[in-house]
Design goal:
Strand order of the largest sheet: 1-2-3-5-4
CATH superfamily: HIT-like
Radius of gyration: 16 Å
Oligomer: single chain
Helix content: 25-40%
Structural class: alpha+beta
Largest sheet: 5 strands, antiparallel
CATH topology: HIT family, subunit A
Number of helices: 4
Number of strands: 5
CATH class: Alpha Beta
Order of helices and strands: HEEEHEEHH
CATH architecture: 2-Layer Sandwich
Shape: globular
Length: about 170
């Protein structure tokens, strides 16, 4: 299913220090952190606990909890990154559709309520069946790091059109 989740499921995973959406340093990508992209306005991370392959998290650099707290240029940059990330997923993974959304606030389902972020979840015809409903089981057919390696070149190409840092912490 998703073997990288076992530490999390067993309660053995190390607790995150700091904010997931504010990886330390200024590298543009990091395989260890599943950071695919960072520029001066946004970050894109591969979700460590995905619903499906390619489940991305897109967040503003600024630690804010509400979309209404973004100024117009920051909101535009965030939406541009959501659009670019969706385009990359479409080209590389070829899903039949997407769920794209933002859960703002804990009561709305935000797992990390204090830092605004969008989920981009690729969907395929028949990707989930009764197992997900009855057994609360999700199957992810490709290893997380394999998906990361497939997506990274596309985000590096995107990096060339922005002013983000070029280095990696690998």
């Amino acid at each position: 299913m998703a073997p990288w989740r076992m530490e999390h499921v067993a309660g053995e995973a190390a607790k995150l220090t700091g904010c997931l959406f504010e990886p330390p340093g200024n590298c543009s990508h990091s395989r260890d952190r599943l950071l695919l992209f960072r520029n001066k306005c946004t970050v894109v991370l591969l979700n460590r606990f995905p619903y499906t392959n390619g489940h991305l998290l897109v967040a503003p650099i600024d630690h804010i909890d509400s979309i209404v707290s973004l100024d117009s240029p920051s909101l535009s940059a965030l939406m541009d990154t959501v659009s670019s990330a969706t385009n990359i997923l479409q080209k590389e993974l070829r899903p039949d559709g997407f769920n794209i959304g933002c859960n703002q606030g804990e009561v709305a389902g935000a797992g990390i309520a204090d830092h605004l972020h969008f989920h981009i979840v690729p969907r395929w015809e028949g990707d989930h069946n009764f197992m997900a409903v009855i057994g609360e089981v999700r199957s992810v057919p490709e290893h997380l790091l394999t998906t990361y390696d497939r997506l990274l070149p596309h985000f590096q190409a995107l990096q060339q059109t922005t002013t983000a840092p070029e280095q990696s912490d690998e």
